[in-house]
Amino acid sequence: METIHRAFVGDSRDLEAIDDASVDLVVTSPPYPMIEMWDDLFTELDPAVGDALEAGDGRAAFEAMHAQLELVWDELERVLVDGGIACLNVGDATRSVDGSFRVYANHARVLEAFESRGFDPLPDVLWRKPANSAAKFMGSGMIPPNAYVTLEHEYVLVFRKGGESREFEPGADRRYEAAYFWEERNRWFSDVWTEVRGELQDLGSDDLRDRSAAYPLEIPYRLICMYSAYGDTVLDPFWGTGTTTLAAMCAGRHSVGSELEAAFVERFTDSLDQVPGLSRSVGRARLERHREFVARRREEGKAFEYQATHYDTPVVTKMEREIRLREVESIDAVENGTGYEYRAEHAPLSLE
């Protein structure tokens, strides 16, 4: 099986390189308005942002930043298939502007923007992203009432384009082979993820690291497994360090991404030799966790009715029988005028 991954350098407000209705799933983490590390970027996109911040008008700056993101949301509406899913990792911001401290609810603003474009909101996920500080509050120490809680969570907002779910041909292999285990479903489809942690990705230079807001690989990998099948294409319009593309490679899906800075794409390309080993370890870890679940369930005296077709292990439900995990065998990278195309060859997961 071959998957194709495109990463191009460009502005996500105009995804002209992507055809209408050619993307099945969007998984991304946009820059968060009112987080200071993104001030310069938003000001470059619209000088009114910098003017508002300098004038101490936080609300105007917040709206101007989201106005730029909404140009990307317009493009997502165009390229996503009917019934396709968009998953956005979004964090709120806390900030003092002109001496006034408040929270800027980015998740609520994004929710409003997608609803206005006809997307149906689906149940979202909260995942815990611990702050570096040991303090659990900000403000006046031990004296009420002017302290504030520390934000240690981010949202994964989930939307469906249109009112109908995607349809597949009955018994489609690419769907049943992409099934997840029963216990994975119970963990992944919980609305709170407490076992996922934020991570600082090694990008090879301090300058790149300072400009990165990479989320943990586990987040896009889960979302891709949850909301797509083999053969689907995943889009990340804020590609960054390529975490979503890496997750798509590990999950055996196609992907496409847009990134403003060529240095990120170059760095990703230089590290392709690590992908086969990573994809193998991800698949084996899933299988090992399932076998541990089987052992625990048997210790509890519970039986299994079904057997997996491709693995020497029982499964809980009939729909799990055809699960077939895959690993990357090799990747070829071809440079083009706007970025790179990566062709990944996949094989069934090797067990030894």
From TrEMBL:
Give the enzyme class: transferase
InterPro entries in alphabetical order = DNA_methylase_N4/N6 (IPR002941), MeTrfase_CN4_CS (IPR017985), RM_Methyltransferase (IPR001091), SAM-dependent_MTases_sf (IPR029063)
Question: Which residues are in the DNA methylase N-4/N-6 domain?
Answer: 23-266
* Keyword Oxidoreductase attached: no
Q: Which GO terms describe its molecular function?
A: DNA binding; N-methyltransferase activity; site-specific DNA-methyltransferase (cytosine-N4-specific) activity
What does the record list as GO biological process? DNA restriction-modification system; methylation
An example Pfam family from this entry, by short name, is N6_N4_Mtase
**What's in the keyword line of the UniProt record?**
DNA-binding, Methyltransferase, Restriction system, S-adenosyl-L-methionine, Transferase
EC id: 2.1.1.113
State the reactions this protein catalyses: a 2'-deoxycytidine in DNA + S-adenosyl-L-methionine = an N(4)-methyl-2'-deoxycytidine in DNA + S-adenosyl-L-homocysteine + H(+)
UniProt lists the family membership as follows: Belongs to the N(4)/N(6)-methyltransferase family. N(4) subfamily.
The protein, known as = Type II methyltransferase
